[in-house]
């Protein structure tokens, strides 16, 4: 080694450093590019962790249930309770009629006819039911009346199934569904609107209510309070102003604000007053001017305690504004639930909703199978009722809702 020149030794050392350094750089470079490669496909590589995180979050805190979902288990029980009076007055009388090994004879058919007519089933619907029941009894050569209970149940279900519909909660092509609500005084229009709005907002829909009953200031306040309860916007004008103008502004605002559902309240009116019925026609036309396909639904609210008069009301309202669906209210407070059979038999208009109490959660889609089951098979001991307005008012206190304050803060003058 001593024979080697110093320059050569220095050259070899430098060369070794360069080679080793190059090697290290190469290895480092490989690693870098490997990570770079991982980084390129980064999102998909990172997703599992994110996913795991996301799914664990879902598992830990599930989406809070809406009041309607929380009530899911008790829905049928509450329907049974809501129909308890009709069941008590009508179905239990039917049970007595059909029991005790009675013979199927003229006397029994007569008693059944009387019972159905006096239960608000209506003459036409009663005769239709009896004709079909008699035909089946003859075919089956029926002797014992007990089987007539099952036959009647099936025939009632058949009638109701012919006239049922569902109200959509949003309109076509991203436009709002516009529902105009009509009916006689005190039928339950505004309450039904409030319940419907609450249901829609509970499903994540944006809802706007037009306070189209400008007849009384209290009617506007009532809408505003329901708007607060339901989490819906309210478009209102001063008391005494033109209801068509409110409807115009409500539908315009619904379109501008991207609402899913616009519900227009109207003042209650006697179906026999032609000038008031003509006013409804004007509201209808004005809505159509703003949104040509609207109103998509004209919802007639009928009070079941009105019995057969509800049929006359429906005919007049249908003539004036082309009713598309019916909401039958107050089934909880009456034994006259049989009127729903008359409605299904005598009118061409389907039933969409039923009201079984005054509370926010006391509105149901009309489901003939559930209705008939609650009436004929429900457990009569499951009594109790949906919350009444006093309870709902007490809830308002808890919610911090007061009419005066609500009117001031949610005015949306158009
Ligand atoms: N028990 C019961 N009461 C109801 C139901 N629906 C409405 N009501 C009550 O009926 C009364 C009248 O209801 P509203 O909603 O104000 O009726 P409306 O048709 O808007 O009345 P007007 O605007 O005056 O024509 C109120 O006390 C409601 O709480 C129901 O399904 N069951
Ligand atoms: Mg009202």
Task: Tell me the layout of helices and strands.
Blueprint: H1 6-40, H2 42-60, H3 67-70, H4 75-82, H5 84-98, H6 106-117, H7 123-139, H8 146-161, E1 177-182, H9 189-202, E2 207-210, H10 217-230, E3 233-235, H11 243-256, E4 261-264, H12 274-290, E5 297-303, H13 309-321, E6 325-329, H14 339-346, E7 351-355, E8 363-365, H15 368-376, H16 389-399, H17 403-409
Parallel strand pairs: 1-4, 1-5, 2-3, 2-4, 5-6, 6-7
Antiparallel strand pairs: 7-8
Helix pairs in contact: 4-15, 5-6, 6-7, 7-8, 7-14, 8-14, 8-15, 9-10, 10-17, 11-12
The protein binds guanosine-5'-triphosphate (GTP) and magnesium ion.
Magnesium ion binds next to helix 9.
Descriptive notes:
- The chain is of the alpha/beta class.
- The chain has 17 helices and 8 strands.
- It has helices at about 5-40, 40-60, 65-70, 75-80, 85-100, 105-115, 125-140, 145-160, 190-200, 215-230, 245-255, 275-290, 310-320, 340-345, 370-375, 390-400, 405-410, and strands at about 175-180, 205-210, 235, 260-265, 295-305, 325-330, 350-355, 365.
- Helix 9 (about 190-200) packs parallel to helix 10 (about 215-230).
- The longest helix is centred in the N-terminal third of the chain and has 35 residues, at about 5-40.
- The relative contact order is 0.14.
- Residues about 20-70, about 380-390 and about 405-414 have low confidence and may be disordered.
- Bound molecules: guanosine-5'-triphosphate and magnesium ion (MG).
- Magnesium ion binds near residues 213 and 219.
